[in-house]
Amino acid sequence: MKNHPVLLQESREHPDPHESLNPVPVYLHWLIGILLAFCVTYIGASQIDTPSSWGDGRTRAELVGARPAAGSKVDGAATFSSNCVACHQSTGSGLPGVFPPLAGSEWVNGRDTTVAAIVLNGVAGPLTVKGSTYNGAMPTFKAQLSDDQIAAVLTYVRTQWGNASAPVKSDTVARMREETRSREGPFGGDKELQSLK
Questions:
Q1: 125: which of 88, 89, 147, 189 fits an S-S bond (Cβ 3.0–4.6 Å)?
Q2: DSSP letter string over the chain?
């Protein structure tokens, strides 16, 4: 029986692993405690109002966005972020030579009917803003945005980055939508827009 092959194989096997009753080492308790204390201290000492220059230059107010005007259900800042920021940038400074700035723009701060017509129908061709010529193309938004959305985003743009113009009402946008209904393409830059200025 001693030479039975099964018993010989079992004698060569290691015992099955099992949990031990050994306690967690004391140094590991200390290490976890120190890390936890460091995390709590770090979070408690963090400054939530760090200068915007540490990031991309946006202020906290720009990141939070303007609250919708009383009675308005559309957030102009959110509409701007999702439709306009790629070209005009979060600072309203645009891209030199391609997309014009909105900050201090005579078009933005001009007649509300003109800026509404621009957003509804877009612009293609040379456009002069603040003495510089831009030759980018602005798409039409009349099919993508409602009158309320266009009014909200224009009101937002006309009150940011130093602009201080009157809000744009949705009925103004609706009127310009009707007046330019037959228009099939974007405005041809300065050449066509001067008559609306």
A1: 189
A2: -TT-HHHHHHHHSPPPP----PPPPHHHHHHHHHHHHHHHHHHHH--TT--GGGTTS--HHHHH-PPPPTT--S-HHHHHHHHTHHHH-TTS--BTTTB---TT-TTTTS-HHHHHHHHHH-EES-EEETTEEE--EEPP-TTTS-HHHHHHHHHHHTTSTT--PPP--HHHHHHHHHHTTT--S-B-THHHHTTT-
